[in-house]
Design a protein that fits this description.
Helicase, Ruva Protein, domain 3, binds glutamic acid, 3-stranded antiparallel β-sheet, two-stranded parallel sheet, Rossmann fold, mainly alpha, Glutamyl-tRNA Synthetase, domain 3
Length: 511
Amino acid sequence: MSVRVRFAPSPTGPLHMGGVRTALYNYLFARKHGGQFLLRIEDTDQARYVPGAEAYIKESLEWCGLVPDESPWVGGPDGPYRQSDRKDLYKQYADQLVGSDKAYYAFDTPEELEAMRDRLKAAGVAAPAYNAVTREHMRNSLTLSADEVKERLARGDEYVIRLKVPRHVEVRFEDIVRGWVVVHSANIDDKVILKGDGMPTYHLANIVDDHLMRITHVIRGEEWLPSAPLHVLIYEAFGWERPQFAHLPLILKPDGNGKLSKRDGDRLGFPVFSLDWQDPASGEKSSGYRERGYYPEAFVNMLALLGWNPGTDQEIMSLEQLTQLFDLERVHKGGAKFDPEKTKWFNQQYLRMRPDAELGAQLLAKLKAKGIDTTLERATAAAVLLKERATFVEDMLEGSYLFTSGSPLEANDAANEELKKRWKSDVAPALEAYIAKLSSLSPFHTDTLEPAFNEVLKEKGMKVGQVMPLYRLFVAGRMQGPGMFDVSVLLGKDEVIARLRAGLDHCAAWV
Ligand code: GLU
């Protein structure tokens, strides 16, 4: 049987990175086994529906390269793929279960339900539930006569359909990640499967759809593990073969203290969503990895390793490589701590792998946006130097001094503070000597600049650490950056000499 898996988000807001990871594992598993990856929108709970959330989910998955084979947007053989477009289909399945005595009508009013809970609480029951014991005392088709039930239905009395959970059974299933899960049915209540308005609850719709869509493996977050025994019972009630389950570990906050939730937004200093999002009701904005400048490949690579590893130390893996290596057996049971610094590291690795010309073009665009004009050739040469220290393309803008002319010390408080700490008047003759050497240097190249600089140090009896910081501040206006000989070559002889002179003049007043 060919593998068919699905990602089944509810459009209740933006896609949390945990959701993207669920989609990713489903995608990898489907690809690895030559199967299909479906997307189903679970929007039966209209009260929680958020406009824009579905479009957001689509865009997020596209950005990550996780495009489903079947979905509401491209269709497929088992559509429709949006539960609100399937709503007329579920009632017959609930009725089928009533017909086979696996479910029943319940006519209890909210007041009666409340009274039941109060009664049980008073009797010392900690978590009162509508279950195999209490249903015997409630107003439902198990306790009412067949005639009365018929009459009530004919009259149009409001009812829900509840699953008739068997009283003394052990529900067992083997989860691919967690191993055997065994729950006694006494701990499962008679969940409503069809609501008063004729709409299915999440549980019924989810199972009917997984069955009709021929899903072979349900790969989803651990928060659904408590529902899984109930789902097993629903499959048994229908007499359907059930898919295999794999419940993925939670993604934890960086300190390991609890689940990383949607509500964490930007509060912890990093995004929890894939794309920027603005809540349509409150207007509240949350940032996304895409807009922060992350490469989707880096984001996806990081997510793949959040709860899984290939069994080796390999960390950098493309979607194709991940597909080759992925297996559900290696998914961890324990929660996976999210590491924002490691996420940046991944982006840095992917940035370094980009072709120089592409980085050059992106840097050029960013420079233009800041009103700095240069050529693609120069931007590319600069990108080659700047990418070593950059996590994002944006970071390369710290090298804008490579594109302007004139001393970088003007209106540069940070540089002036550094200068004041580092300036010693005996550096002046060394830099003067260096200027003199540069003037006649040919060719003007790293291979000639470095020996020239070293000769000056030797002649003046000074250390690199005494002269280099000044050379750097005079020419680049900052303490961090690419090697000064490379920087100098890119700027050209005249510009370097002019900046060194301007720097010396600038400090002359302090002697
Ligand atoms: N609609 C559920 C969710 O939003 C899907 C759970 C499942 O995959 O079965 O997470």
